[in-house]
Amino acid sequence: MSVKKMFWIDPYRSELSAKITSVEGNIITLDRTIVYAFSGGQASDSGTINGYQIIEARKTGKEVLYTIEPNHNLQPDCEVELKIDWNKRYKIMKLHFAAEIILELVYQNFNHPKKIGANITEEKARLDFEWKGNISEAFPILEEKARVIIRSNYDIISDFSDEENEERYWEIEGFAKVPCGGTHIKKTGEIGDILLKRGKRLGSNKERIEIYLQS
């Protein structure tokens, strides 16, 4: 089974009608969805299905399993209304793409260090690298170049590279084309000002960049 992932088609949509395809206790599946499930370091959306709180959204293959509140009355083939916390989604989308820009700038300007971790929530994004020295010494270059990209308000293309296998990418013409299955904003200017901080030490030759929105 495969749910139609409307969060790729229109990541700005916050409400959607869908049909339940299966119910096993508190776990349900849908024929289509706008509720993103944790993947690639991007946090799951928060939301409801017919008013029932989504406790967990879990991706398994091409399917998404939603665990909802107990004592629900949902049945297969029921039409339901999905709603997501739009403020959370939009913050995640902006932080996600801020992290994509910083990651690509690190690769392009610092000899492509190995990325060893990443996570995006509504509070901040983080990127972890194998890195000798203090990574904050790179911040002036990263912040200057990111500011130019953000304020230039470039178009962000998001599409399938392989639709059958649900492989996607984002692209800014002249900057980068990167495989990514997250939800993306349409223009770099939506990000606004960002702040970089050096995260906690991860061990020898391991460094963390934390990214925050300032607007």
From TrEMBL:
Start and end residues of each Threonyl/alanyl tRNA synthetase SAD domain: 167-210
Name of the protein in question: Alanyl-tRNA editing protein
Example GO molecular function: metal ion binding
Entry keyword Transmembrane helix: no
Organism: Heliomicrobium gestii
Keywords, comma-separated and alphabetical: Metal-binding, Zinc
Zinc among keywords: yes
Domain of life according to the entry: Bacteria
Biological process, per Gene Ontology: tRNA aminoacylation
Entry cofactors: Zn(2+)
InterPro entries named among the record's database cross-references: Alanyl-tRNA_Editing_Enzymes, Thr/Ala-tRNA-synth_IIc_edit, Transl_B-barrel_sf, tRNA_SAD
